[in-house]
Structure formats: structure tokens, C-alpha cells
Amino acid sequence: MQEEDPENRRAIERLHAEGCSCVVRNGEIVRAFHQRGVSDLWRLLHEEPELLRGAFVADKVVGKGAAALMAVGGVRRLYARTVSRPALELLAAAGIPVEYETVAEHIINRAGTGICPVEQLCADARTPEECLPRIGEFIRRMKEQTKTAEHETK
Questions:
Q1: For residue range 22-33, what is the model confidence (pLDDT) as tens digits?
Q2: Which residues neighbour 141 within 8 Å (Cβ) at sequence distance 6 or greater?
Q3: How far apart are CA 60 and CA 22, in angstroms?
Q4: How do the domains of the chain map onto residue ranges?
Q5: What is the mean pLDDT of the chain?
């Protein structure tokens, strides 16, 4: 790996200290995110792609879906507390250097009962671009479920 940038190290420290899900650093701009899953990366890719392009990302958990979003977004370098093997393979193919604490065979779902649904949806995708419509559909379904649940509680 290249010589470490102290600003990247600060982003990693912020990830741990503030309990963020993700910290994105692009030049002087540093932003912390707190949503679970791939929602923040999806939103950034579609609404603020310039923030991802050439950025350093520090992330708690990186599965294949998050890795695909980072690759398509042009992320330059990544730190992950936990990364899945499929994500590492995708990132290596995209030429994105990764520093990590733990490698998992796959990312586990929030209930701890099986594979993360996004990891599962992207499992047989050969390229980051193949993952995008699958992730988009997953996010759309999750938003619908949230709206339905909110409507039912009113």
C-alpha cells in the first residue's frame, strides 16, 4: 500500500469514535453518514457523484453491493472494518486498494439469521454495473415497506 495519508487516518478515527456507518473524504471535504446498509452510498452515487469520485471512504461493513457502488462511483481508496470476500474480489478487479480489519465469507443480515439481502442479490453479478439495478430495486422495495408500515401505524 502507498504511504498513509494522515487525513485518511482521521477519517478512520472518526468512523470509530462517532459510530458512523461511513465517512467519505474527498480533498478538504469530509462527510459522515449514519444510515445502515447501502442507502447512503446509493444516494451519493445518484445525487452527489462528485463526492465519491476520487474519494477515500472509511466504512464499517462492506459487502459486494457497497463495493459495487464505490467502484462505479470512482472511489480511489477504502478502509473497511469488515469486508466480505466477494467485495474484496470486486474491489481488486476495479483496482481499488483496501485496508481492512476483518474478512468475512459474506455479510450477515441484520437479524443475524443469514446472508445480507444485498450481498445475496449481487452474488452472481460479474461486474459492479450489474449490481446497480439489483441494489436500486432492493432500495425501492425497502422504501415501499417503510411507507406501508408507517401507513399501517396511523
A1: 999 999 999 999
A2: none
A3: 6
A4: 6-153
A5: 94
Contact 97, 5 (CB under 8 A): no
Ordered strands of the 56-62 beta sheet: 29-33, 22-26, 56-62, 77-84, 98-104
% of the chain at pLDDT higher than 70: 95
**Cα–Cα distance, 29 to 31 (Å, whole number):** 7
User: How far is residue 142's CA from residue 122's CA, in Å, rounded to a whole number?
Assistant: 16
Cα atoms in the 13 Å half-sphere on the side-chain side of 5: 17
Instruction: Give the pairing type, strands 77-84 and 56-62.
Output: parallel
DSSP state of 57: E
- Does residue 40 contact residue 73 with C-beta atoms inside 8 Å? no
Compute the Cα dihedral for 55, 21, 133, 68 and give only its sign: positive
Pairing mode of beta strands 29-33, 22-26: antiparallel
Collapsed DSSP state (helix, strand, coil) of residue 60: strand
Tens digit of each residue's pLDDT (9 = 90 or more) over 61-120: 999 999 999 999 999 999 999 999 999 999 999 999 999 999 999 999 999 999 999 999
- pTM comes to 0.92
Instruction: Give the CATH fold of the 6-153 domain.
Output: Cytidine Deaminase; domain 2 (3.40.140)
